[in-house]
Amino acid sequence: MKAVVVAAALLLAGCSAGTPVPVAGTPSPSPSLQPPPSPSPSSPTPVELTLAFGGDVHFTGRTAGLLKDPATAIGPLAEVLSAADLAVVNLETAVTTRGTPEPKEFHFRAPVAAYEAVKAAGIDAVSIANNHALDYGRAGFADTLDGAAAAGVPTFGGGRTTDEAYAPLVLTARGVRVAIVGYSQIHTLAESWKAGPSTPGIALAWDVPRAVAAVKAARDHADLVVVFNHWGTETDPCPNANQKSFAKALADAGADMIIGAHAHVLQGDGWLGRTYVAYGLGNFVWYVGSADTGVLKVHVRGRSVTGAELVPAVVSGTGQPKPLTGSAATAATKKFADLRRCTGLAPAPPVA
Which of 9, 280, 157, 26 is nearest to 144 (CA)? Predict the structure, then answer.
């Protein structure tokens, strides 16, 4: 793995004589968990990193067969993910063979080989804050968490308690401490799927104070803060009002970048003040249909996002993302850039 896990459950807390101090409105953290030390003083020359993000990934229907060879399951864009200093996708499935289907229309699940595929593609962490992580109930969700831990695949956006679900995952890439949090902004079964004080579940964007508190806690313990959201209106390439208002709250709290998925289509990117926002990356490894997709490469120097570009692709007949070349790639790149028009985002960060 390119990135090293520093703390899989950085508490939503500050430090006082080495003792965790809970954020207002959150349950007291487990006394066995301690926050890592504050980040080291900044180097005179900020480190330059490339982070890579993909959208929604699962292994069901036509993509289930890809797990016969986990090493090649993600497809050729695994090379782009592996080359980045840190790579993240949304794992849009329960990883389990147990459980009872929840009362909803679509249900996704995959065997533990899904984690082999993720690791083989150079993916360093996966979000489980989405509307399919509990498709097979809390029994299936427990298997998802246990399987990830056994496979050595860091997860964020969900956990066995509220504290774990909202706690930033902290990874170190080339000496830079990167904190990642994830939230779901999907209404379906949100109240029954949310994590509780002693109940497994996911972190919800609807609890804005708690989500903001997590970002602020991450800001105190890391050099770079990334938020990965599951949000948006399905098939709409423009962000909705809830996305925009939540993005502003996260940016104000200190997020350096905000990445999203869920809408099944690409949504635009740009800057909200000094915070880089990519509203939607769409499907990435998907069981049906075809759609524009790609790997988003985000370039960072210190805390500043200096640029980003989409490596354009299309979801192919196998369900894997197939890179585009030539005129098709040029057209896809322009189409992605044009999506900014309805985002309200700036094409570049403000001049320092």
Answer: 157
Strands 86-91 and 125-127: parallel
Q: How many CA atoms lie within 13 A of 32 on its CB side?
A: 1
Residue 310 token pair: 């989409």
Say how far apart CA 157 and CA 166 lie, in whole Å.
6
pTM: 0.90
Share of the chain above pLDDT 90, in %: 87
Domain ranges of the chain: 4-13+47-342
> 5: number of CA atoms within 13 Å, CB side?
16
Token look-up 């090493």 returns 71
Domain 4-13+47-342 in this protein, CATH class: alpha beta
Is the confidence at residue 12, as pLDDT, over 80? no
Report the chain's mean pLDDT, rounded to a whole number.
90
pLDDT-above-70 percentage for the chain: 88
Tokens of 348: 């570049």
Q: Give the strand pairing for 48-57 and 292-301.
A: antiparallel
SS (H, E, C) 306-345: EEEEEEEEEECCCCCEEECCHHHHHHHHHHHHHHHHHCCC
Rg, Å, the chain Cα set: 19
Q: Are 279 and 310 in contact (CB under 8 A)?
A: no
